[in-house]
Automatic annotation (TrEMBL):
Zn(2+) binds at residues 42, 44, 98, 101. One of its GO terms (biological process) is cellular response to carbon dioxide. InterPro entries: Carbonic_anhydrase, Carbonic_anhydrase_CS, Carbonic_anhydrase_sf. The lineage of its organism: Bacteria, Pseudomonadati, Pseudomonadota, Gammaproteobacteria, Enterobacterales. This is Carbonic anhydrase.
């Protein structure tokens, strides 16, 4: 059986390294937090917000759930949203998804899931996601595809993220938003380091 000892040992090692580099590292966060963004992301263990964005403690206020769903009927996520906006006064809300999402894959295969017929929290949440995606699901009946399948998407790392600044944008549509090598959905071609002007959806480079 796996114990917590390895995690505790790594935590002690991490804390020691931080203190050796900056003796006041932990003292900086004693008096409270001033995060600049609320990050709503997926619970997938491969996409931790702070690691992928290189953020330090105090920079991101984070909420994660299966398939990074934002449901107005979910008191959990809505209480996080209200706290971030009204008390922390974050500058922006980032709703971040990623490729290879297990929640989306589970929604597409819901009828075959062991919990699909049970009144479980997982079945309800995944069922909501499936209902949201039903227009995008290829339906097959009697061997006939009722809707043409989409063109195969290029292979991407699950760590490649799609994020949308949603609240209090700090930029105008014509101002520089991002610099990248990969192609944005509505931005300049790959390799052209021009300013992103999408001002809505931004693709981060695959890792």
């Amino acid at each position: 059986m796996t114990t917590l000892k390895p995690l505790l040992a790594r935590n002690r090692s991490w804390a020691l390294q931080k203190c050796q580099h900056d003796p006041d590292y932990f003292e900086k966060w004693v008096d409270g937090q001033r995060p600049h963004s609320l990050w709503i992301g997926c619970s997938d263990s491969r996409v931790p917000a702070e690691v992928l964005t290189g953020s330090q403690p105090g920079e991101l206020f984070v909420h994660r759930n299966i398939a990074n769903m934002l449901d107005p009927a979910d008191d959990n996520v809505m209480s996080v949203l209200q706290y971030a906006l009204h008390y922390l006064e974050v500058e922006r809300v980032v709703l971040c998804g990623h490729y290879g999402c297990g929640g989306v894959q589970a929604a597409l295969s819901l009828p075959t899931l062991p919990l699909a017929q049970e009144s479980s929290a997982l079945a309800r949440r995944i069922g909501q996601l499936r209902n949201t995606l039903h227009h995008e699901i290829v339906q097959i009946a009697d061997g006939v595809v009722l809707r043409p399948p989409p063109a195969p998407a290029p292979t991407r790392s699950p760590l490649a993220m799609r994020w949308t600044p949603w609240w209090k944008p700090t930029f105008a549509p014509s101002s520089p938003v991002c610099w990248r090598v990969n192609r944005c959905r509505r931005c300049s071609p790959a390799g052209d380091r021009s300013a992103c002007t999408a001002a809505s959806t931004i693709w981060l480079p695959a890792i």
